[in-house]
Write a structure and sequence with these properties.
single chain; about 230 residues; alpha/beta; Rossmann fold; SIR2/SIRT2 'Small Domain'; 3-stranded antiparallel sheet; 9 helices; about 20% strand
Length: about 230
């Protein structure tokens, strides 16, 4: 059976009500990205950064997966170990929808870790009433488990291994601008995989896409994945 590798970006979550990575004015949820998504911003004002991520965590828990997410669950059920998702999103909607083989390359709003002892926690298990939450184990400061600008995305070795083996690489809801994720489709294409993209707008890396479906993933994916499954 062929191996399918999926890359998802902000577009698939936007259809669930989560705003995309940043607006045209360069703001992210009305904040300068350098203040809330960089280690320097965190060091300057950790309480501001925590307010921002606590609000985003709360928002992520108020929304639900959409038909695009659920279509990917059905594809995973059909493919088993021949299916993996790499997501740039931190909202955990793929996991909440039921996908199991998910690589959250930019971390998750559901998680945090101690800067001192590196113990990891679920947000649901810590005291979020504190301006700067503390580690229950060593009382060190916790930080959101999010990959910020200038930090290395998680599980890049695993991602590279999956790229080398995949037969079909599908990109969903991403503009093809943010690297290293934007370069994955190029790697997949060079290694011989068929490439498919689903997005509202034409992505910047369209020249590496064999088959482009323009529109909302929640409308396109259920039909597209049904067709794929019929031909497995």
């Amino acid at each position: 059976m062929k191996k399918y590798l999926i890359l998802t970006g902000a577009g698939i979550s936007a259809e669930s009500g989560i705003r995309t990575f940043r607006d045209n004015d360069g703001l992210w949820e009305d904040h300068d990205v350098n203040e809330v998504a960089s280690i320097d911003g965190y060091r300057r004002n950790p309480e501001l950064v925590w307010r921002f991520y606590k609000a985003r965590y709360a928002q992520s828990m108020e929304v639900s997966p959409n038909p695009g997410h659920y279509a990917l669950v059905e594809l995973e059920k059909a493919l088993g170990d021949n299916f993996h998702i790499i997501t740039q999103n931190v909202d955990a909607l793929h996991i909440r929808a039921g996908n199991q083989r998910v690589i959250e390359m930019h971390g998750s709003l559901q998680d945090c870790f101690c800067e001192s002892c590196d113990t990891h926690y679920k947000m649901a298990d810590i005291d979020l009433s504190l301006a700067r939450p503390l580690c229950p184990k060593c009382t060190g400061f916790l930080r959101p488990d999010i990959v910020w600008f200038g930090e290395i995305p998680y599980k890049m070795e695993q991602i590279e291994a999956l790229l080398r083996k995949c037969d079909l690489f599908m990109v969903i809801g991403t503009s093809g601008v943010v690297y290293p994720a934007a370069g994955l489709v190029m790697t997949a294409k060079y290694l011989g995989a068929k490439t498919i993209a689903v997005n509202l707008e034409k992505p910047d890396n369209l020249s590496f896409i064999d088959e482009f479906h323009q529109g909302k993933s929640g409308e396109i994916l259920p039909k597209l994945i049904k067709e794929i499954m019929e031909n497995l």
